[in-house]
Amino acid sequence: MEIALDGIEVGYGRRRVLRDLTWTVRPGVTGLLGENGAGKTTLLSVLVGLRRPRAGTVSVAGVDGRAARFGFVPQTFSVPPEVRVVEAVSYAAWVNGVDRRAGAGAALRALEAVDLAELARERVRALSGGQRQRLGVAAGLAHDPDVLVLDEPTVGLDPTQRVRVREVVASLGASRTVLLSTHVLEDVHHLCHRVGLLAGGRIAFDGTVDEVKAAMAGGAGDGGALESPLERGYRTLLDDLGGEV
User: Fold this and answer.
1) pTM
2) Which CATH number fits domain 1-68+148-245: 3.40.50.300, 3.60.21.10, 3.40.190.10, 1.10.10.10?
């Protein structure tokens, strides 16, 4: 489903964080990039209905975003370690409107989607870091949302765990709209169809990953062998937008 943000304004006191922000997020996996403090978490909060903007609207497939089902996996989430995996996901389904009697079935379907069904009866404390991240994704999926929003889903994971989470996100993006906020540019490279760059309170760039890489030709220079083409392109875009930040 296509998400349209139109004229979003958010501020804290006199400080404006988002300024007349307009952006369209299309089906598939879209990356949201931006420096620390750019307002990414604020934008995600507006999108999923946790914060009401001062002005502007969010619509999904042409209707008011409040009528859409969002699944949100924050960067930091906690689950009691003694709870069973299926119980944690069943609870998430219930909180998001699934009838209690249907919760176990919804939880098992979500766990199957993230390849954790075989661990459904395990205690959360028995899961590895990567498995806990996938548990978070399952909790965000349990009520069968129209849109899945992920905030730094691979932060703190080792390379093997990160690849496993990427595989799950890529699979979900084949049939859903997924918005991925991350600082891990390798995740963007492997997962995202498009990228939005938040700077100066607005989406200052909206394009493909290849277009971000192409920006390195714009004059930021070679950052050396330790930078990938995507990292150099991202840095170039930030440098070019320096006057707007």
Assistant:
1) 0.85
2) 3.40.50.300
